[in-house]
Amino acid sequence: MTDAKRLFFGIGLDDTAKEHIKAWLGNSVVGKKPHTKVQNWHLTLAFLPNVQPDQQNQLVEFARTLHVAPFSLRFSETGYWPHNGIFYLKPDSIPEPLSLLAEPLRDKGSELDIYHNPFGFAPHITLFRSHKPSPEIVQAIPPFTLEVKQFHLYHSYRCEERGLIYEPIETFMLNA
Question: What does the angle CA 139 – CA 20 – CA 99 come to, to the nearest 5 degrees?
Fold first, then answer.
């Protein structure tokens, strides 16, 4: 069991989106602690803790079979979950291609008995973690659009020097 990995499928952010969010956080959001690391910003599609090597291979093969057209996500709204102190950006709407990507990936995690998610799909980009109360928003984020053309399988692990790392280990291109 020592070969198990903490993985997740997710959508990465391009540099333009990261810079947009970072500038807004720096100018318009007051927090009691630093925001999450810019390089870790993503939108989770399916969380998959404790994945064995054979399960990882099955997940990759399954993800390669998905045929979803590229799509856009517009962000202009924030949210906050008080129970865990998560402050986040959420897309203005959930386009059908996003659901067509997330739901089968989440279902596959359940089918392989990796993780049975008790929560419905709530797409978001975590900006603060364990932050109570919610950070103060001085000015709303100027809307931006993320063009989604691919998604990744990430390995999540801790490194003594660099802290929490989300490393893409597989990339899957979207195509209709």
Answer: 95
Task: Answer whether 9's CB lies under 8 Å from 48's CB.
Answer: yes
pLDDT at 151: 98
pLDDT band at 38 (very low <50, low <70, confident <90, very high): very high
- For residue 3, what pLDDT band results from cuts at 50, 70 and 90? confident
DSSP 8-state class, residue 19? H
In terms of Cα–Cα distance, which of 89, 94, 93 is closest to 141?
89
Choose among 10, 5, 24, 23: nearest CA to 77.
Answer: 24
C-alpha angle with apex 109: 107 to 110, nearest 5 degrees?
65
- Cβ neighbors of 76 (< 8 A, separation 6 or more) are 92, 140, 141, 142, 143, 144
End-to-end CA distance of the chain, in Å? Answer: 37
Q: What is the pTM of this model?
A: 0.94
pLDDT of residue 2: 62
